[in-house]
Specification:
Layout: H1 2-24, E1 42-44, E2 47-49, E3 56-58, E4 61-63, H2 66-72, E5 75-80, E6 85-90, H3 98-150, E7 156-163, E8 168-175, H4 177-186, H5 189-206, E9 211-218, E10 224-231, E11 234-239
Helix pairs in contact: 3-5
Amino acid sequence: MKSRKRTTIVVMVILASIIFASATHATSATKKIDALYQNIKIIVNGKQAAATPEPFIYDGTTYVPIRLVSEALGATVNWDGVNKKVIVDLKTEDPVSKQELESLRMQGYYKDSEIARLTKELEDLKKKIEEEEEAASKYKDLEDFLDDEYSRWNKISFKYYVDEYRKSVELIIEFDYDKYGDRWESLRERDIENWLKDIYDAADEIYDGKDFYGHIEDSVDGTILVEFYTEKGKLKVDFL
């Protein structure tokens, strides 16, 4: 009986040794496969990479050289022969420090502030251009009115100034008193007032809300004959 037990134990040890030995060396086994080569090309970032060895298809899966693809993507590949491992390390940028992040944030803040400032300046400039265009248009309207109504009066000249800041319109009317003084003296004050009121009404329609003032003077020596101005929305005329 003892002899049979000893024999059984020896057989079991031998079988166990064979089984474990087979398991230990299973990773080194070789296998023949039917691979399909179809001149497969590897394209990395739009460029064809020279593939050595050539890629192939086996059992519905395409196999390519791992070193070729990894290095083309900026990774490094190493072979650990002891542990039978392929080690792929992707190159990554160094993490940004808090100080660098804060610097970038401040740069973004200053850029946003600068953009806001430039945007405001652009809006102000557009508004100023629009106001100047409107002022030029109104100036032309008043000029056209005086030309249409009084261009035949070539003995009289009109000078007018628009002050957008003070919101006022100044009109200076000139004529040569030495030549036309007699005719001037023959005019009634009422006629002169009505004439000035017609001009004021046209100017007020064009420059709504602006003060209107000015005078009539001798073009030779500058003597002022009449002054006029608005008061509470009405034209006042003073004869000097």
